[in-house]
Write a structure and sequence with these properties.
It is built from 18 helices and twelve strands. By secondary structure, it is an alpha/beta fold. It folds into three domains: about 60 residues, no CATH class; about 120 residues, EIF_2_alpha (Alpha-Beta Plaits, 2-Layer Sandwich), CATH 3.30.70.1130; about 240 residues, 3-Layer(aba) Sandwich (Rossmann fold).
Length: about 450
């Protein structure tokens, strides 16, 4: 996943970052309330070498280097069972060496002869007492190890720089640390969720996300795509202008037959009827003699929304009426309604009757616009689109996926129908999913007289 795609996804799902980060902070605060307090007390020792009084500068340098090396070696002594057992015996603790080792630590800062001994306990006084016992046991053990046999003293001594003190507040849990950690974890989880959501979101949101292997995008219809007769109802709306743009692009595409144009939704969830109707209305404004055919015998969306009854296409295909008798006028254009819907219209669509109807209409009108059934998963579209000179795929933003659009395209191409383009309906005009074409409609306003 590219950085640009991730940034687009973050901009789209920014609320996820806020939600998960807030949950992480709340979880960190809750952990701070649940965990018991732990107090720490630390003592500092320095390793010194008993150099002779007449020692030169080089001897002192060697002594300091020797002390640094000793300090590092003493950290292992502080963790040894010998020291820990002495602490247990001195304090009369009911614990084991392994358990006590988790409460006592000894560290040597890099390249220094300093030793830091820390003890942790549930109470402040308990931490100071345990640290004092730890220092005593550690010092005695080191002196015992470093004192040669028969000698009165050791050439190495441990000097106290800081005695263990009773801490004023608990070292753990640290509220700020828990809150910061909770925020970081929540933020990271949100980023992973956003990345996975962006990878898994294959829906078509605009012209940039139609995917590969599909025809060119003829245009995008902004907003909610408008009504079925948007160009007539609100001729100056941004949706109406977008429909006119699609019609103009289609009319000026080279080597494109416009005698019969089929508008095919990619899936049943895509809105193709609004595109079919407004495409016909736009062509009428351009001076084209057009007839709109409701060729979706399963739903008859155009016929029902325009309140057209009569024998319609189904009646013509069954011989109940002629084409002239079935054609109605609505919204200023000629419309061949569906008549009655059928559960299985394949028999009527696959016969020679439908092609004959389209041929008759094309001889009477300059352009025939077919509102066809969805390409997936129905077969009706094949028979409708096979009679058309050009086929347009309609996809609704945020509904069909890029693989579905690709499958619809390949399904039509498999039977010799090559769609001339795709139109994205209900495209966003703002946000990360808006492309340059649809975002420009955001500022479109009706011209003033």
């Amino acid at each position: 996943m590219s950085a640009t795609a991730l940034l687009r996804a973050i901009k789209k799902w920014w609320w996820t970052l806020l939600a998960f980060s807030a949950l992480g902070v709340a979880a960190g605060f809750a952990v701070g309330l649940i965990l018991p307090p732990v107090y720490s007390s630390t003592a500092q020792l320095v390793v010194a070498f008993n150099a002779p009084a007449q020692a030169g500068s080089s001897d002192l340098v060697q002594a300091n280097s020797f002390a640094v090396q000793k300090a590092y070696a003493y950290t292992e002594i502080g963790r040894s069972p010998r020291v820990l057992n002495e602490v247990i015996a001195a304090q009369g603790l009911d614990t084991t060496v392994e358990q006590l080792a988790r409460e006592l630590t000894v560290e040597a800062p890099l390249n220094t002869p300093i030793l830091q001994l820390t003890a942790e306990a549930p109470t402040a006084q308990g931490a100071a007492t345990l640290a004092t016992a730890f220092v005593d046991a550690f010092t005695q053990t080191v002196q015992s190890i470093e004192t040669p046999a028969g000698a009165a003293s050791s050439p190495v001594r441990l000097e106290t720089l800081q005695d263990p003190e009773v801490p004023d507040e608990a070292s753990s849990p640290n509220v700020l640390t828990n809150l910061a950690l909770g925020f970081a974890v929540g933020f990271a989880i949100a980023l992973v969720w956003i990345a996975l959501a962006a990878i898994g979101d294959r829906r078509v949101h605009g012209s940039a996300s139609v995917g590969e292997g599909v025809p060119r995008v003829l245009g995008s219809i902004p907003g909610r795509g408008g009504s079925l007769t948007e160009i007539v109802d609100t001729p100056q709306s941004r949706e109406s202008e977008a429909y006119r743009t699609v019609a103009a692009v289609l009319g000026h595409m080279p080597h494109t037959r416009l005698d019969v144009v089929a508008v095919v939704p990619a899936t049943p969830r895509d809105r193709g009827s609004a595109l079919s109707t407004n495409l016909a209305l736009a062509m009428r404004e351009f001076g084209v003699g057009v007839v709109l055919v409701d060729a979706n015998l399963r739903s008859g969306t155009i016929s029902s929304q325009l309140s057209l009854d009569g024998p319609g296409l189904a009646g013509v295909l069954t011989g109940e009426a002629t084409v002239v008798e079935a054609v109605r006028e609505a919204a200023g254009i000629a419309v061949l309604p569906v008549g009655r819907t059928l559960q299985n219209p394949v028999e009527l669509m696959s016969g020679p009757g439908f092609a004959a109807v389209v041929k008759t209409l094309s001889e009477t009108y300059d352009m025939v616009v077919l509102d066809a059934a969805p390409a997936l998963p129905l077969s009706d579209t094949i028979f409708a689109a096979s009679t058309a000179g050009s086929t347009i795929l309609a996809v609704t933003a945020g509904r069909a996926t890029a693989p579905q659009l690709s499958a619809a395209t390949e399904g039509l191409r498999a039977v010799g129908i090559d769609p001339v383009g795709v139109v994205v309906v209900d495209a966003k005009t703002a946000g990360v999913d808006a492309d340059a074409a649809t975002s420009s409609f955001r500022d479109l306003r009706p011209a003033r007289a």
